[in-house]
Amino acid sequence: MTETVEGPLTGVRILAIEQMQALPFATQLLARMGAEVVKVEHPVTGDSGRGALPAVKDIDGRSVGATYLRNNLDKQSIAIDMKAPEGRELIRRLVPRFDVVGENFKPGTMDRMGLGYKDLAPLHPGLVYVSVSGFGNLLPSPYGSWPAYAPIAEAMGGFYEYRREEGVPPSVSPAGALGDIGSSLFAAIGLLAALRQRDRTGKGQHVDVAMFDAMVAMADIVPHFWSMGVRGKRRTPGIFDGFKAKDGYFVVQAVRDHQLQQFARSVGHAEWLEDPRFASREGWRELMDTVVRPGVEAWAADKTKLEATTALAEQGIAAGPCFTTEDLVADPHVASHDMLLRIPRPDSDEPMLVVGNPIKMSGTPERPPRRWPTLGEHTAKVLRTELGLSDDDLRALREKKIVH
After folding, report:
1. Which of 47, 74, 81, 180 is the catalytic position?
2. Where do the structural domains in the chain lie, given as residue ranges?
């Protein structure tokens, strides 16, 4: 693998006016597949993700937070003050040089600066303009003015109430930044679809992703089951549970009759199959705490979670260990799939771990990642190359604090 390997998106140019994770995760994914991503940041504070914790001290002496570090590999950074008229004019001049403009500000923010889709489309009829926000831009929402982070969208999408125990507060962000990453994936799909249509028609369009919509889609089981008459809290009939082994927990899904029969034999309890109480999947659920769990955990008591799940998998039962971080770091699958990238840290001899690209392609080898950019690292280069600005022009903009 070398830096010269071209990805499937080589030639696609993205001007990313972004912050935190809901869009930066998507543009980083596209950059890993060959797109050129130029990120626009505020010249003083940069992307607000730089202020997250934990943080490292970067090679320019600035503190850089974890949210920025894991979402901005393979990008260039230009620092432009878009609140200043001269800064906005620089953005407008850059737009025709790019295929895509992406932004994830609160609806109306870009319009107020004269940088919304309706402002930029006349400058570039083929422009694909991608927006990610809490509640969307193109259609009305009673929540349109609300600020939103991932857990807000996750909560409103139904994730937190679906299996919450009565009297127990919701567990916020139980799966990390699902709201951000899920929204990013829909944004990436919409962006690629719009580029494909532009290739056919020559016309761009505004692609709009509401994080709330993305979470409704990802929690599809919640409204779907409700429409089928399932009301209130519901535990899946059959086995959809975690069990204790000698070094931790493992999870099993066996929700079909033939799976349950094989599971009973696999854990040494074939007698359950003769018990009329186990005749239905609902019966397995009702007996979970009194019969099934004690029986399974007695079988697993002398096994590690990996040994238990290996034994079940060999019998055709879907099961997996609940990995700790240490388990993930040492896992051979994770290593062979390059799913944890070791990025040199500027303030330590120990590398940082950043997740790799889960999309594997038979004809495109993966490239080693480039580190995140320092704030404004590529400002001069981009403005010289794209707009033809001279050293004197750049000096004047710096003196006015329009760029960094």
Report:
1. 180
2. 13-220+356-399, 239-322
